[in-house]
Amino acid sequence: MSTRIQDLFREDLIFFEDVLSKEELFKSIGKKLLQKNLVNQGYIDAITERESKYPTGLDLSVVKAGSSNVAIPHTEVNYCNWKGIVIARLKEEVIFHDMISPDKSIPVRYAFFILNNEKNSQTNILSYLMSFFTAGDKMSRLDSLETGKEIYEFVVS
Fold first, then answer.
1. DSSP 67
2. Which range marks the domain in which residue 100 is found?
3. Which end of the chain, N or C, is more open, meaning fewer C-beta atoms within 10 Å of its C-beta?
4. How many domains does the chain have?
5. What SUPFAM superfamilies does its record include (predicted)?
6. Entry pTM
7. How many CB atoms lie within 10 A of CB 19?
8. Cβ contacts of residue 104 below 8 Å, gap of 6+?
9. CATH number for position 55
């Protein structure tokens, strides 16, 4: 069964976070996802651990100068009870390491958490996100939106 991109987003899974570090972000989002039973107990530790080994920051300044950078944190399928994308917009940017040059630190404004409880479908989600991030003015448009509802309607349109 193929998943439609629209089915990967939920309006109640768009969060506005005021955190000082990616670890704080993972704890905050992880707790919310646990409350919704979308992940299991080991999720926060697993995503924190995976991020330290395989950074997910994406420097979008190479695509368009002044663009907000993003991170795409994710972890193994056994920690997830649902398949979809959780969006966190950060009040202040936090530092992630770049996925292409892991020694490089980049300030990130958005985290797109991939939750995936199916073994083989991560690549489709990643390629969708990559094309979203690099298409025209999508990131500037995202920056201009105020509410979770506006962000949700934009990403599913």
1. P
2. 5-156
3. N
4. 1
5. Phoshotransferase/anion transport protein
6. 0.94
7. 18
8. 59, 97, 98
9. 3.40.930.10
